[in-house]
Amino acid sequence: MDTDLDPLWQDLDWAIGQMLIMGWDGTEVTPQIRELIADHHLGSILLTAKNLKSAEQTAQLVQKLQTIAHSSGHPYPLLIALDQENGGVNSLFDESLICQFPSSMGQAAASSPSFSSSPSGNSSGNSDHLNLAYQIAQATATEVSACGVNLILGPVLDVLTNARYQPLGVRATSDDPQEVSQYGIAALQGYKDAGVATCGKHFPSYGNLDFLGSNLDIPIITQTLEELSLSALVPFRNAIATGKLDAMFVGGCGIANPSMKVAHACLSEQVVDELLREELGFTDGVAISECLEMEALQTEMGVRTGTIMAVQAGCDLVLLCRAYDVQLEAISGLKLGLENEVLTRERIYTSLKRVLKMKRGCTDWNKALNPPGVELLKKIHPSHLALSMKAYDDSITVMRDNEKLLPLNQSMHQEEELLLLTPLVKPLPASAMTKTILEGSSTRIKSENPMHDKWIHRERSAIMSGEGVFRELGRSLARARHGKLLHTSYTANGVRPVHESLIQRASTIILLTADANRNLYQAGFTKHVAMMCSLLKASGHKKNLIVVAVSSPYDFAMDKSIGTYICTFDFTETAMSALVRALFGAFTPRGTLPGTLRKAPRKAVQNSAGGKAKTRTQHWLVESYDVERDNKGLKDLLFAMARASAPNHQYFYAFGPQSFSLSTRQAFIPTGDPEHEMVMEEQHLVVRNSSTGALYGFCSTYYLPTTCTGVIGAIFVDPSKRNVSIGYSLHRRAVRNLLQKHPDIKQLQLGCCIPGIFPGIPFDHSDTLTSAITPSSTTSTPSAASSGLKSWFSSTCGWNLSPSSSSASTRNRTRKIFNLILPSLQSWSSPPDLPTTLQRAGVSFDLIYGRTPSTPTPTAEQESALSFVSSHSSPEILHLYRLALFSSNPTYTWIIRAKIQSPVIERGEQLVGTIVISSDLGREYPSLPSSASSGGAEFTGGIIAPVVSSSSMTGQQANLVLQGLVMLGLRQNKRDKMACCLLSWVSNSYSGDGDVGLGLGLGNNMDTLLGMGFEVQQVWEQVTNGVEQFASLG
């Protein structure tokens, strides 16, 4: 525990609550938000337009929230955050007390000088143009602070690198990084002087996003780090350098360039900890994540895992906007991350200290419980209103007026008709119309750009209302000219007869566009109307066209066929009032378009290094497998694996959740009561999407007490989720679990014969048989897939796959395990001389059947077989033999014993070998190929796990015993009408360890088996390492 922190924070539930910022829908305190504050110690609230009806209601609501926190024992007040960027993005609207100001680009247009900028972002010699930005920021922060808000999500520091096509639009200042820096720093100072905390956004940049089309696609940044550093990162770096930036909002966009591959910026350590903190120096500030309720993130990984990743990446506040169940999921995710040691107490305390520092700088209990409220707002409103009107008047920009149409009262006669054509748009969240709609009812009209809206946060509060948005503009125009006005809307249906008729009547047409570069129907409609006016004018009619861009100024900035072009930078009521005044000569518009207005062709920037994209290991939340919760998810995962598997691995289709379970396979030790004593323990792990229930990865683990061996039996990762560290996270957690749960553990094993999923790392059929069957071979040449797996386990997971022969490394071993197939059993015949040779060598055989209801306890023969296997093989194979003897279906499974005459043994016979015969092998062990090669599992017989002791025999005798056991097994399966026969789990010796394999050191015996008609079907490499190999994970 950090000595600088209050002892209260020893309870990590309190600390976790301070790392979350949450919101809800509704204008009153709900039981859910009350519970989050009181019981889960939530420390920060995000308010949106859906929470706020008026300034007075906002102040009362915030006071209630702070009172709940105070009475619940919170040491510090809540952070109350608000989006109040001005322009079209405000959350709080109250036309009588809260003033509307221009957007960031509008403010720059109202005061754009000729820039001469220093690298620090400070203008050289002239700062008067920045005074308006400072005054607006201070006024805005003072107003929201009076209502109890103490954290304003601003300033916007994005550079519009690709200005014409970005949804951020006028929320950004311009396409000039130095200009953005200057205005951003001016706003930052204004916020700070009003006493609120600040949050720059949207790091690393929303100014040049590529959208891929689907609502689930994440917009991505394709610029290289070098390009970002020269442009997009400049304002962030300069703002950080002032020391006045309290927090940074890290976006959820992806990054894809030759040097970086990031799915979500706010979940990437490379973006938050390295780029933001280390390179840009934002070491002590609070990093706030994008809202993790975004659909793409929930679909890809789930909120629980996303929350942990955000904290791992370096975020201090994780944003969950409104869904209560998702918010609880995030809280449980952080707690589970701590329990699983994915997150550490130190990491939690690092974020806690940053958050508390920000709280101390912007609030205290006296201020939080007693906001100035309405009285202060009434006092400052007149001066702020005057500032608002001046700012909007100064922002109106006339880019062209080639035919001198302005003012209209000089270019139009009173009796002439004026036509207003307006698009269908959403009313702005903070507007009189939205307030009216919320208080009444209205029909929703679907946005044409729902994906873009998600990334500019408008979806949180905006409601569609068609042409009603500009109805008041029409009325204002009619009043201003004291004459007739025609007004209609236009849609993606294009120019209709009604439009043609009205254009014929009017002498002047005012046509509004709102982001025509994204809403292409507006561009097409405008060009069509412009062509009509041109043709009518050529035939002698008076047809003046004025195009007004009420959002992005780039709609027709470069299209000189539009002779009169005006920009307002937003379509708030205040902006439209300023437009009317400008059109009718109340003032001369002096606004200028910020930035460069022209875009040089981008040159493709090649990766001079020519290297691969830089990747970082992410730690996914790993949970214990729950049968009831995860059964369906595991089925779906296995099916996805099967569909993506190579033809020789199609046996994945035979897997099911039960394939990994020992509970249905009676894993007993060979002593005492076989009904109760376990020979193997199991625990399985998953990476899951806690929001959808989908499994992205699965790992089966087992423990063998008799040899103190921990086993990783299988690791699966959804093919669509590979290369994002899911497998690494599963492996890491599996190893840690085995080491921590079993203090006596001596070694870890990669691969498991029981359950029969992956006995080891799979070798492909392209591997050379010679290298595969050589017991001492460590230089075999596996296929690319096998090499990739071996490389991953070695370099990423820490396994030693090249065991030393020195005595110090006796627990670091490898061995190969084979599955062989005799494809045409019914045409096979026994070697003619083999029975006679066996008889002369004194080798005899008998058959042991499994337990039946009439023989509930093991017989002497059964116990002798189990004792032999226990002495000469591994616990896994012992478990397999127990399955054979105590199977619920003993009719189809037997054990053949091989005995040899021995003068030192009573009765003259010594047990020297065993083998299991099964006629339903394909159903019991799905990793063995069946239907793919033989037409169905019911026609596939099996001979499993030969165990031959060579300690009391010569190599030639051991080879003869093996042939005899296999021959009898083949005969039995042939009598049972099996189409083919599988000889499974035949093993060579451990590398450098003598005859201690599954019971048989193959050596030249493989040639014997191949000579009997078998073919190699599958090869696996099983690896065992001493626990010291993984000491860092203990």
From TrEMBL:
GO terms for biological process: carbohydrate metabolic process; peptidoglycan turnover. Residues 13-357 form the Glycoside hydrolase family 3 N-terminal domain. InterPro entries: Acyl_CoA_acyltransferase, GH, Glyco_hydro_3_C_sf, Glyco_hydro_3_N, Glyco_hydro_3_N_sf, NagZ_Beta-hexosaminidase. GO terms for molecular function: hydrolase activity, hydrolyzing O-glycosyl compounds. SUPFAM superfamilies: (Trans)glycosidases, Acyl-CoA N-acyltransferases (Nat). Pfam families: Glyco_hydro_3. The keyword Cytoplasm does not apply. Keywords: Glycoprotein, Glycosidase, Hydrolase. Belongs to the glycosyl hydrolase 3 family. This is WGS project CABT00000000 data, contig 2.16. It comes from Sordaria macrospora (strain ATCC MYA-333 / DSM 997 / K(L3346) / K-hell).
